[in-house]
């Protein structure tokens, strides 16, 4: 089976892990945590990084840090992982969904304004599959409305966006909003196995995230708490792996980009299959290799994925829309909501093997199998 994802761990990972074991520093108090925070934040052009135990926790800590609480609304795309909604719900806030741009599968910024209410505290653009969200319209809207922006940069480590709004220059995804949450799960470009980080330029936002990560201990009085926080800490072991990974991020992105070119060339000759496109204002890091089937082919993603599996090729489906999630609907959320472009993407989209270990020959095998699966 050609796997859908495989991490590359042959840099300094083992050496740094051995340092943790030899020194006895395995908890979050160890020195790699701060080193990893500084290195990753610097790579994303952010002043502060707060490492946490996973990306879902990072989203929650970031929303908390931006002041989200009971009764607030958080606008997010329907096409995303449930973590985004869960993070809002755990703080007593309500997720509000908008549909996607069918070209990029990212949140359609033209739909945000109509969803704003006096309770909108945060808008959460989620950069999808390595490609930037079109941030400028949102940055302009923020000037008029004063909500905060939390970028979900789990899928775009190192990706960039050309922002006219921010001075006509290439900006890192994750460096444009008021805060950013990211994940270092094993399939992400930089991985710690499980892990996440909150990023911000504002020291006060970072301090609030840091406090939430560690049970909201009061700095001036140990074991005295005036707010509820959680244990979202990252261990020194995870951070050791993360630091070794950040050292190679440029190499990883170059590999991802090369693999994308192989896929693009091979898929060009397969009719009725749209490979992810990169907008002129985006520099993608090609986190995964996503395709969408032309409905005219009369085949849905689920069928083709099943056929690919029978041919030894692992794939992953697209996100099922949050408005379709029973666990959320049962809470009375999204009643009557329709997000047809998200539904369409779920029905016809999936992604192909996307690991860093792919070779040109393997990509050719994948595309040959896809061709057979479409017959
Ligand atoms: C992976 C991912 C997350 C969640 O990260 P975990 O570390 O698995 O909790 C959040 N948002 C997006 C867009 C992701 O892809």
Describe it for me?
The protein contains 12 helices and 14 strands. The strands form 3 sheets. Strands 1-9-8-5-4-2-3 form a 7-stranded mixed β-sheet, sandwiched between helices. A 4-stranded antiparallel β-sheet has the order 10-12-14-13. The model has no long low-confidence stretch (mean pLDDT 97). 35% of the residues lie in helices and 15% in strands. It has 2 domains: 234 residues, Aspartate Aminotransferase, domain 2, CATH 3.40.640; 125 residues, Alpha-Beta Complex (Aspartate Aminotransferase, domain 1). It is α/β, with parallel strands linked by helices and 375 residues long. Strand 4, helix 5 and strand 5 form a beta-alpha-beta unit.
List the bound ligands: pyridoxal-5'-phosphate
Tell me the CATH superfamily of the largest domain.
Type I PLP-dependent aspartate aminotransferase-like (Major domain)
Total helical elements: 12
Residue runs with pLDDT of under 50 for 5 or more positions: none
Dominant shape: globular
Sheet bearing the most strands, described?
A: 7 strands, mixed
CATH architecture of the largest domain: 3-Layer(aba) Sandwich
**Overall mean pLDDT:** 97
Q: How many domains comprise the coordinates? A: 2
Element order: H for helix, E for strand: HHEHEHEEHEEEEEHHHEEEHEHHEH
- Whole-angstrom Rg: 21 Å
Class inferred from helices and paired strands: alpha/beta
**Beta-strand content estimate:** 15-25%
> Do you know the CATH topology of the largest domain?
Aspartate Aminotransferase, domain 2
Q: CA-to-CA gap between the ends?
A: 21 Å
* The CATH class of the largest domain: Alpha Beta
The helical percent reads 25-40%
* Strand ordering within the main sheet: 1-9-8-5-4-2-3
What's the β-strand tally? 14
């Amino acid at each position: 089976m050609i796997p859908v994802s495989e991490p590359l761990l042959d840099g300094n990972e083992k050496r740094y892990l051995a340092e943790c074991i030899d020194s006895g520093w395995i908890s979050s108090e160890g020195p790699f945590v701060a080193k990893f925070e500084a290195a990753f934040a610097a790579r994303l052009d952010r002043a502060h990084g707060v490492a946490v135990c996973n990306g879902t926790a990072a989203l929650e800590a970031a929303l908390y840090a931006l002041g989200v609480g009971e009764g607030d609304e958080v606008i997010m795309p329907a096409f995303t992982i449930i973590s985004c909604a869960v993070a809002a719900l755990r703080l007593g806030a309500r997720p509000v969904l908008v549909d996607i741009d069918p070209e990029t599968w990212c949140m359609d910024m033209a739909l945000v304004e109509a969803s704003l209410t006096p309770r909108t505290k945060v808008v959460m653009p989620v950069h999808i599959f390595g490609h930037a969200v079109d941030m400028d319209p949102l940055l302009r809207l923020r000037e008029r409305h004063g909500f905060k922006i939390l970028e979900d940069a789990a899928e775009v480590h190192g990706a960039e966006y050309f922002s006219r709004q921010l001075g006509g220059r290439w900006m890192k995804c994750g460096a444009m909003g008021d805060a950013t949450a990211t994940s270092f799960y094993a399939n992400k470009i930089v991985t710690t196995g499980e892990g996440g980080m909150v990023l911000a330029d504002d020291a006060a936002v970072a301090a609030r995230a840091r406090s939430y990560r560690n049970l909201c201990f009061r700095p001036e009085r140990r074991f005295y708490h005036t707010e509820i926080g959680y244990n979202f800490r990252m261990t020194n072991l995870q951070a050791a792996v993360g630091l070794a990974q950040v050292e190679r991020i440029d190499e990883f992105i170059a590999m991802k980009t090369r693999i994308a070119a192989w896929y693009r060339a091979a898929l060009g000759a397969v009719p009725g299959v749209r490979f992810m496109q990169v907008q002129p204002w985006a520099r993608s890091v090609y986190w995964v290799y996503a395709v969408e089937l032309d409905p005219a082919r009369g085949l849905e993603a689920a069928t083709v994925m099943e056929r690919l599996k029978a041919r030894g090729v692992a794939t992953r489906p697209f996100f099922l829309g949050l408005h379709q999630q029973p666990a959320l609907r049962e809470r009375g959320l999204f009643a009557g909501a329709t997000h047809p472009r998200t539904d369409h993407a779920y029905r016809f989209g999936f992604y192909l093997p996307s690991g860093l270990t792919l070779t040109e020959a393997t990509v050719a095998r994948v595309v040959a199998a896809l061709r057979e699966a479409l017959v």
